[in-house]
UniProtKB/TrEMBL annotation:
The keyword Metal-binding applies. It comes from Williamsoniiplasma luminosum. The keyword Metal-binding applies. It holds the Pfam family Creatinase_N. One of its GO terms (molecular function) is metal ion binding. Residues 137-341 form the Peptidase M24 domain. This is Aminopeptidase P family protein.
Length: 358
């Protein structure tokens, strides 16, 4: 289903005459044009993209603008212009993104548009299934991520700090053609590995420690997200770390093997958690198994104990179990996949088995 059809279906289900899109993420998804500010108005007849003076020239020069019938610059009179369109097309009921607009903004919309029937609508599932172009951008972002991990393994050595590794990762992504990082790089060495979203510190990485590296990038506005945990040196300074690495590896393998169209995302999470719990570590795996990724690093579908989402071909998801033991350390392994009719396609291809960096 193309993007206009997705919004038309949403309008039909909610008995709407039009939809006013405000979030930069949904505007980019629909039009393929980045802007921090703008309004996208979708009616039953046309689509209108309104941009201010910072963006309008770039948009007019863009050769691959998608799904836009009318492109206009705007200034202080934007609300008069939108009101004129609503009157001309006899629009009385408008939808807006429930998870984006603040209450005060909704009141302002009502006042400026002189319309009372504004309906908040959950739009979080609009972007779940990617089209071919979107998948290609995510594939490229993941390919860059694979290259960066190779660079890391060739560069890292004992004595380097977590912050220095994070800086190296940032530079490497730009060198390989990424737009920017998709999130702040997570580096967690030694006992810091017990913190799932650890912030890099001045701590030096030493032999015998596990190092968890969670990183990703944007390419043409679409994200990658990969986590690897590797051993600095040849021998573990705590044999329990070897045990939990093997458990997480097998747990992730189980989760990946269950990915296919028609599968309940929540069932995958529950099966993986059960496996980890049977090994005696269930209390140390306390986050969802994974999430969708695309224009945002975390988006639908989510794989958690509460999820009832049925996987569909074209969904891009992560599978990322972890075990985190305070005072000991932790392990997380994360990959990006595309759901297919009969299973999945791996996007992140860096080695999943334990690597010992000498």
């Amino acid at each position: 289903m193309n993007k206009k059809a997705i919004i038309n279906q949403c309008m039909k289900e909610n008995n709407l005459d039009a939809f006013l899109i405000y979030s930069p993420e949904n505007r980019y998804w629909f039009s393929r044009f980045h802007s921090s500010m703008g309004y996208l108005l979708v009616t039953k007849n046309k689509t209108y993209l309104f941009l201010d003076s910072r963006y309008i020239t770039m948009a007019r020069e863009k050769t691959d603008l998608q799904n836009i019938d009318v492109l206009e610059g705007f200034g202080p009179n934007i609300w008069h212009r939108i009101s004129d369109i609503l009157k001309a097309e006899k629009i009385s009921k408008i939808g807006f993104e429930a998870d984006w607009l603040k209450y005060q903004e909704v009141l302002n919309f009502k006042k400026q548009l002189k319309i009372e029937d504004l309906m908040p609508v959950d739009t979080s599932k609009w972007r779940m299934v990617k089209d071919d172009w979107e998948i290609k951008q995510i594939q490229k972002a993941c390919a860059i991520t694979n290259q960066v991990y190779e660079d890391v393994l060739g560069w890292i050595k004992p004595g380097i700090t977590e912050k220095a590794l994070a800086r190296f990762v940032s530079d490497a992504f730009l060198k390989h053609g990424a737009d920017k990082l998709s999130f702040d790089t997570i580096v967690a060495s030694g006992i810091n590995g017990s913190k799932p979203h650890a912030v890099p510190t001045d701590k030096k990485i030493v032999e015998g420690e596990l190092v968890t590296l969670d990183m990703g990038c944007f390419y043409n506005g679409y994200a990658s997200d990969q986590t690897r945990t590797f051993l600095m040196g040849n021998e573990f300074n705590n044999p329990q770390l070897s045990t939990i690495y093997n458990i997480v590896y097998e747990a992730q393998s189980l989760g990946i093997s269950m990915v296919k169209a028609g599968q309940n995302a929540g069932d995958i999470h529950r099966a993986v958690w059960k496996y980890i719990d049977e090994q005696g570590y269930g209390q140390y795996f306390d986050h969802g198994l994974g999430h969708g990724l695309g224009i945002e690093i975390h988006e639908e579908p989510y794989e958690s104990s509460l999820s009832q989402t049925i996987l569909q071909p074209g969904m891009t998801i992560t599978v990322e179990p972890g075990i985190y033991i305070p005072g000991v350390g932790g392990v997380r392994i994360e990959d990006d996949l595309i759901v297919t009719e009969n299973g999945y396609e791996m996007l992140t291809t860096s080695p999943r088995k334990l690597i010992k960096v000498n």
